[in-house]
Amino acid sequence: MNICVFLSAADLDDRYTVPAREFAELLGRGGHTLVWGGSESGLMKVVADGVQSAGGRLVGVSVDFLAAKARTNADEMVIARDLAERKALLLEKADAIVIMVGGTGTLDEATEILELKKHGQHTKPVVLLNTAGFYDGLRQQFQRMEDEGFLPVPLTDLVFFAKDGVGALAYLEESAGLR
Predict the structure, then answer these.
(1) Average pLDDT in the 19-23 region?
(2) Which of 25, 84, 114, 163 is the Cys-Cys partner for 54 at CB 3.0 to 4.6 Å?
């Protein structure tokens, strides 16, 4: 399965890097392909290293202004013109999406993917990997949106919140009929 992971390119502490590495190793050992932003820095590098060292493939989609930071030994690397094209290519190449910890770029990617799913533009499973409770506030906001009628589909149809990588991968594999 091609699993797109949206996540930070920042250097982060162990409460985020250790679970990210564990998740990456699960992906690689499971024979999955990581589809990601292609960066060779921060948490993106941690996940790419983990997937690759565990036997998985790497498909990167970088963007022109970040091409100098792209991983050189990915199995495939595409350079998009801009962020909009990058997001479209990441979604196109993915069978499923995982949203890990990140900043405004990750949040932008997450909300666009959920908006597209809400409008039926894709049916791919989406998991929000809530490492160390990072997305507790966002989950609360989404729940309020659903409770107050802002979501035309149930929240559970849009996104699955996973506490850890094992739960995230189990959900994705079950959604794909692999379990």
Answers:
(1) 96
(2) 25
Average pLDDT value for residue range 63-76: 95
Give dist(CA 64, CA 153) in Å, integer.
Answer: 36
Give the DSSP per-residue string, 136-178.
Answer: HHHHHHHHHHHHTT--SS-HHHH-EEESSHHHHHHHHHHHTT-
Per residue in 54-68, pLDDT (tens digit) is: 999 999 999 999 999
Query: Would you give the distance in Å from CA 162 to the centre of its chain?
Result: 12
> Phi then psi for 127, rounded to 5 degrees?
-120, 135
pTM across the whole model: 0.95
Element (H, E) at 30: none
Strand partners of residue 52 = none
Residues with Cβ within 8 Å of residue 85, at least 6 apart in sequence: 63
Please state the rounded mean pLDDT for residues 112-131: 96
Q: What is the distance in angstroms between the CA of the first residue and the CA of the last residue of the chain? A: 13
| Distance in angstroms (rounded) separating the CA atoms of residues 63 and 134 | 26
Q: Which of 13, 167, 12, 175 is nearest to 95 (CA)?
A: 175
